[in-house]
From TrEMBL:
<keyword id="KW-0378">Hydrolase</keyword>
<dbReference type="GO" id="GO:0005524">
    <property type="term" value="F:ATP binding"/>
</dbReference>
<feature type="region of interest" description="Disordered">
    <location>
        <begin position="41"/>
        <end position="100"/>
    </location>
</feature>
<keyword id="KW-0067">ATP-binding</keyword>
<dbReference type="Pfam" id="PF00580">
    <property type="entry name" value="UvrD-helicase"/>
</dbReference>
<dbReference type="GO" id="GO:0016887">
    <property type="term" value="F:ATP hydrolysis activity"/>
</dbReference>
<dbReference type="GO" id="GO:0003677">
    <property type="term" value="F:DNA binding"/>
</dbReference>
<dbReference type="GO" id="GO:0043138">
    <property type="term" value="F:3'-5' DNA helicase activity"/>
</dbReference>
<feature type="domain" description="UvrD-like helicase ATP-binding">
    <location>
        <begin position="297"/>
        <end position="340"/>
    </location>
</feature>
<dbReference type="Pfam" id="PF13361">
    <property type="entry name" value="UvrD_C"/>
</dbReference>
<dbReference type="InterPro" id="IPR014017">
    <property type="entry name" value="DNA_helicase_UvrD-like_C"/>
</dbReference>
<dbReference type="InterPro" id="IPR000212">
    <property type="entry name" value="DNA_helicase_UvrD/REP"/>
</dbReference>
<keyword id="KW-0547">Nucleotide-binding</keyword>
<dbReference type="InterPro" id="IPR027417">
    <property type="entry name" value="P-loop_NTPase"/>
</dbReference>
<dbReference type="InterPro" id="IPR014016">
    <property type="entry name" value="UvrD-like_ATP-bd"/>
</dbReference>
<protein>
    <recommendedName>
        <fullName>DNA 3'-5' helicase</fullName>
        <ecNumber>5.6.2.4</ecNumber>
    </recommendedName>
</protein>
<keyword id="KW-0347">Helicase</keyword>
Length: 565
């Protein structure tokens, strides 16, 4: 069999699987699983297993593919009858009192917010909701892995998809039939060549090379496409790197350039026959601008505390019953433009899940102290059947606040003769280190933190100012170890199943859990420009996420414990 998908990325293969799954295109599914047989990355193996599970289920007697016609519910079933079994054939569990409150609110009708603290059974609660009705449902999550898991658990009356998946299927065929137009990406260098950009001396102190100009245009477009705005505007242009301290006249010139370039590129992206790729954010934006109607009686939005404004805007316009599920205290992507729907949206009903199944009272007590710092008076209660503690541990996992602490933990692990695994892979950190190399060679980098700098020494000097404080630990690590040694260490990370120690930033650890966790000492530090009267709420939320990844034991540095006693 020829490798039709040889040049496709894992993300493109996932999109093709979702399309084929919904349309019943078994030949395409077989081509996807064949191509995945040649791939060796953890993501490829995970996707291959999901595809094979789907093919196995569809092949069994009575197996049903999503997209196949389903018989209408009988009159006997009624809109609120609860099935006696889960979709996996096991007897249905009995909901807790808090989960039952959520079910009752859902069945009462109207929009509902379900505030689910860390480890409190959010997923099982959503299953209960889906199984309590025969109405058509739509489950939406940002993460593909979560959606794949939901497809195996939810009844066939509920369609499970990412927001991008919904947009992809609704995109006109003139775009959708051209896979390069839909899913390819243009990087800053390629865009600079396509637009014939040249070196630009903005003022006496700020010079932007073509690749930096290309990055600026792409970043402006990205922020526009993730926003709820219909038109590109000045607020979609943000300051990066050397521009953080640039005078207003310079920033005005940069903004005008970025807007002009972004409008030109967006016009080409929308043109069906233009080779400029639309990309994932592009077709999501086109879908949102078309004022789509989601074919469902109710919509479940998972992880609603970190929702793209564009997705939230689409959902606000739906006539279906809206259920927002998440934990507003786990919002950790506001820096990326995400909106905390749990704090922003007004609903007709609201309920809480406050008892964790993940850990016991000891960890819950410290998590509740963090909630108190954030103004929440409802404590997080631990599972009394689970023994947990806060103290010294021999960790299976180390969670860090910064990239610098993450790399330092990897080096320490290697020095001890252990094999480290880095959650999410090393691509982002390697890109930063290649950016360091570019600057040392006198070339500008497209790494956002290094934007507009011509030399590495300029970055070093920048960290001594208030605006560059967030880079200080990374710069010190590079200066002390050298970027080549750091790249050497990252290249020696292994798959999780072969590792002795799992290492992650708190951001990448979201949604995961481990038996024993050690936290690094760089949490709860003040950010530049933030008042010093107490911890920054964004930092408290991130620490809350990190602390609640542990099931049995978590080690917290004393300097951090003293801040929250």
């Amino acid at each position: 069999m020829s490798r039709q998908y040889l040049s496709w990325s894992i993300a493109q293969l996932e999109d093709e699987f979702e399309r084929a799954q919904d349309s019943g295109d078994r030949a395409a599914i077989e081509r996807v699983v064949s191509e995945l047989g040649f791939r060796t990355t953890p993501k490829a193996r995970s996707l291959r297993q999901a595809v094979q599970r789907f093919m196995g289920a569809a092949a069994r007697p009575g197996g049903e593919q999503r997209g196949a016609a389903k018989p209408p519910p009988t009159a006997k079933s009624g809109p609120t009858q609860k099935p006696p079994h889960n979709t996996n054939g096991k007897p249905a569990r009995k909901p807790t009192a808090e989960q039952q409150q959520a079910i009752d609110q859902f069945q009462h009708g109207g929009s509902v917010k379900i505030n689910a603290y860390a480890g409190t059974g959010k997923t099982s609660t959503l299953e209960f909701l889906a199984q309590s009705t025969s109405r058509r449902g739509q489950y939406i999550a940002f993460n593909r892995d979560i959606v794949r898991d939901a497809k195996e658990k939810f009844p066939n009356t509920v369609n499970c998809s990412t927001s991008h998946g919904l947009a992809f299927k609704a995109t006109p065929s003139a775009y959708r039939n051209n896979s390069d137009k839909m899913t390819k990406r243009v990087n800053a260098n390629q865009l600079a060549e396509m637009l014939n950009l040249r070196r630009w001396e903005v003022d006496g102190r700020h010079v932007l090379q073509p690749r930096s100009q290309g990055y600026l245009i792409l970043d402006t477009l990205r922020r526009y496409m993730q926003s709820a705005d219909a038109e590109l505007a000045a607020h979609h242009v943000t300051r990066h790197g050397s521009l953080l301290a640039a005078p207003e006249a310079t920033m005005q010139a940069v903004t005008e350039f970025a807007l002009h370039g972004a409008k030109h590129v967006w016009g080409r992206m929308r043109a069906e026959t233009d080779p400029m790729p639309l990309g994932h954010d592009g077709y999501l934006k086109l879908w949102a601008l078309s004022n789509p109607k989601i074919a469902a009686d109710f919509i479940l939005l998972d992880e609603a505390q970190d929702t793209n404004p564009i997705v939230l805007d689409v959902l606000r316009k739906q006539s279906a019953q809206m259920i927002y599920v998440g934990d507003k205290y786990q919002q950790i992507y506001e820096w990326r433009g995400a909106v905390n729907a749990m704090g922003k949206i007004e609903t007709q009903g609201e309920t809480y899940l406050t008892t964790s199944f993940r850990f016991g009272p000891a960890i819950a007590e410290w998590a509740s102290k963090l909630l108190d710092l954030l103004g929440e008076k409802r404590p997080l209660r631990g599972n009394v059947a689970v023994k947990s503690r806060v103290g010294r541990v021999e960790p299976r996992t180390i969670l860090a606040r910064t990239n610098a602490s993450t790399i330092a933990a990897i080096i320490e692990c290697l020095d001890e003769g252990k094999k480290p695994h880095l959650v999410g892979g090393a691509d982002e950190l390697m890109e930063m280190l290649r950016g360091v190399q570019d600057l040392k060679e006198g070339k500008q980098s497209t790494v956002p933190d290094f934007f507009g700098f011509d030399k590495w020494q300029q970055v070093v000097e920048f960290t001594k100012s208030g605006e560059g404080d967030h880079l200080l630990s990374f710069v010190n690590l590079v200066e002390g170890r050298g970027e080549r040694q750091l790249m050497w260490a990252l290249n020696r990370t292994v798959d999780e199943e072969r590792s002795d120690l799992t290492i992650s930033t708190a951001h990448k650890a979201k949604g995961r859990e481990w038996s024993t966790v050690r936290l690094t000492d760089d949490f709860l530090r003040s950010r530049p420009g933030k008042p010093a009267n107490g911890p920054d709420p964004a930092e408290v939320r991130l620490f809350y996420v990190a602390l609640t990844r542990a099931k049995e034991a978590v080690e917290v540095p004393q300097n951090i414990l003293s801040l929250i006693r």
